[in-house]
Fold this sequence. Notes:
3-stranded antiparallel β-sheet, 29% strand, DUF317 domain-containing protein, disordered N terminus, DUF317_SPDY, 5 helices, 10-stranded antiparallel β-sheet, alpha+beta, disordered C terminus
Amino acid sequence: MKKQWTxxxxxxxxxxxxxxxxxxxxxxxxxxxxxxxxxxxGWRDTSEKGGPLLLxxxxxxxxIAYNPHVQPGGWTVHGLAAGDxxxxxxxxxxxxxxxxxxxxxxxxxxxxxxxxxxxxxxxxEHQWRAQSEGRHYTATSPDGSAxxxxxxxxSGNAVWWSGAKDQQGSAWTAQFTxxxxxxxxxxxxxxxxxxxxxxxxxxxxxxxxxxxATSVSVLPSELRAWQQARITAARAATWARxxxxxxxxxxxxxxxxxxGGARARR
Length: 266
């Protein structure tokens, strides 16, 4: 007798994962969350074998690097001067959760909103505590584990500094130069303030008494489907942008050849 087909994943074994909150203390995570999305968005992978991850935007104005083999190691996002935009940098420690970094890197692939950016709005929405002191302004998460700090030096140059810490000290820090586009800093702050937990596999949980971890069973096919959905969305958005930019085919009818003109050869 033939065995009856009972559906995809019938022989799969569920794997234990954890939903971790607050997300700022969840640890770095899988860098493919960043790299595969950018590749699907048309970014070029210029990494050398065995070297750090290097990705370049389609217009070659932004480069993203991840190098865990140096101290302190982590992420560097570098934007070249272009038009009215001055050169800018953002550096983030290697324990920066990829879901928070993706707020910034995903925004690099999307058209800029017509609305003026407001870095503090996502933090206020989620009840972060604000404190000002002269030219310094700090917002802290309700549980005190994460912060975003703004300051101006004597010349009026602005610096954005962010990070997270647990009972053992600093988990990670991030810094943005004064020239970093504000809509990118806002995208980062929105991802930082999000109350949504992030998923980590068993064995990848940070040792921190400040995190709350909820055990969940996940099929490998489910995990692949979630990852693929993010990549598919990036490809669809890239195709839509490119189709708008692509010149439309000419629809005018060419003039008829004059009577008695040369005939096409057979």
